[in-house]
Write a structure and sequence with these properties.
Length: 319
Amino acid sequence: MQAKVSFTQKVKEELCSIPFSDEHLRAFLAAFIKVNGHLTISNGVSSIVCRTENAKIAKFIYHSINRIYGITPRFSYSKEMNFKKRVTYSVIIEEGEYIIGDLEISFLDGKIARNIVCNNDMISGYVSGAFLASGSVNSPKNSNYHLEISLNDESFAKWFSKLLLKYKGVEFTPKVAKRRNNYVVYLKKAQQISDFLSMIGCVDKTLEFESIRIDREFSSIGNRLQNLDTANYEKTAKAAEKQIEEIKIIDQVIGIKNVQNKKQQILMQLRLNREDASLTELSKEMSEILEEEISRSNINHLFRAIHNMAEKYKGAVRK
């Protein structure tokens, strides 16, 4: 049975298919290595090791390093012998100290080098790299909208959050929260998540996210309108029930035919004959009977007069 592909995985795989510029790609690698990589030294040779369970991500990092630095990384993999039998791919990049220096990466300092994120395209590249390394986003089919990037340093998480605020053209409101040993930078608003996906260049997943979100919101609007219609119907029914009670009091005391106001008399009879009619329907029927325009507000005014009359006769009945 084929495993279900998550929305996060779809976003990351689209990221790996985007034709980035060299400037964008350098910022991308700076963030990916900062979040995912670690430096090892063996026999005097320094290497960067990046690990992922996604073969497409491993392949993308391999080609990106080769394109920017002309270095051919090495691959290794390990397989967990458990039920899921996960495979972890390692991309081993030699000349690690040179690359870390060139990309101005510090594994000890949380600051992000200005030269790596000095314009919108580089900020987009840096954010893309961090998301590919440790980001996740809920499927838009889930009403709990949530996108996050998990980082292992509080200072870096705060700098990363500030970086999102510097991106021009989009207004993000990222939050930072501690989760176990990590610090999570996250977005909760659907529009901001959509803007984030667009910012990192995932056009297809942005369109999918928006399409599902709009369908959900239309459905929600439909449900709200249905609830409103039900509430209005119940309100109309209760008002009609009270009006009928008052009309019956008047009829018992003086009789509807003896009401002097012709319009009140006609409206009383209409209400008794049409218990479920709305004020709009009553105004239309009275307009036809009297051959003149009787508005909804006129109907309201007439019912208030009928109410006052019934109140007067209720007092008389009590005496």
